[in-house]
């Protein structure tokens, strides 16, 4: 894409957006206070929200701030690598990573991006909601695929799975066969069952762990977030569980952004992260030749932190050569074997 083409794209985006562009940039957003996790859905592009900073108050932890600002544990840790999670100094400025690229998936129902540990809900025309989640830890992976919500249960009973009972028995701590509703119930007070047997979207009695790989495959949410979804998500809602550790998307002003997350350990051998990122960027451009800063892209893949970064060269930068297809082996240091996840 040359400078003229990029300028035309920028102008076209600005004209097309209309009211949504004003909402996204904050010109009209001040007139409406959006509920927690809610964003106007852009008519052009796929970037929502914005990052901002807050100041730590005496006695606050980063985990406290994460929950207050709709962020998960790993997201706030990666955005503030030099700040103590549990004992930050008062008056420290903390980055709240509240800008997101919408996943490359159909904008319908619920979309869960595992590597990002975030849920997106297209709840109404022109609106998308997003919330941090916990997903299955290594050895108890949350499966990818399309399913639907089935039954909703308030104050659920919990039956520990056989594997957990066996592990606890081996430690001399056999759990009860059934845990009744209450503060010791790991499902929290609300659960939405999925069409995949034994998998749920539910609350938790340990909210500090939201945003980690901490479950046995289920999707955990902050209690206030699952309560909100429980009241509004109809049974039969489509749920698309995907795994996109690298995302690319356009902002309303025509800037190409990317966002990279640590890949799930069990999927690291199924694809080459850098090649996957280049392919993702190529899809964002279509048939046009992108003025992409490939050095910046590679750094983003090798040091993922979940923050959105611009990948386009500025006007005064000399563009790095695009990686030619025939040099893939040299670029990545060996023959690649791609998976289909």
TrEMBL record:
The cross-references to InterPro entries, in alphabetical order and at most eight, read: LD-transpeptidase, LD_TPept_cat_dom, LysM, LysM_dom_sf, Transpep_catalytic_dom
Q: In which pathway does it act?
A: Cell wall biogenesis; peptidoglycan biosynthesis
- Which PROSITE patterns does the record match to this protein? LD_TPASE, LYSM
- Show where the LysM domain sits: 52-96
Q: Where is the active site?
A: 202 (proton donor/acceptor), 218 (nucleophile)
Query: What UniProt keywords are attached to this protein's entry?
Result: Cell shape, Cell wall biogenesis/degradation, Glycosyltransferase, Hydrolase, Peptidoglycan synthesis, Signal, Transferase
Region Disordered, as annotated, extends over 153-177
Which residues belong to the signal peptide in this entry? 1-29
Q: Compositional bias (Basic and acidic residues) at which positions?
A: 153-170
> Is Signal included in the keywords of this UniProt record?
yes
Give all residue intervals belonging to the L,D-TPase catalytic domain.
108-242
Q: Which family does it belong to?
A: Belongs to the YkuD family.
Question: By what name is this protein known?
Answer: L,D-transpeptidase family protein
Q: Which organism is it from?
A: Halomonas alkalicola
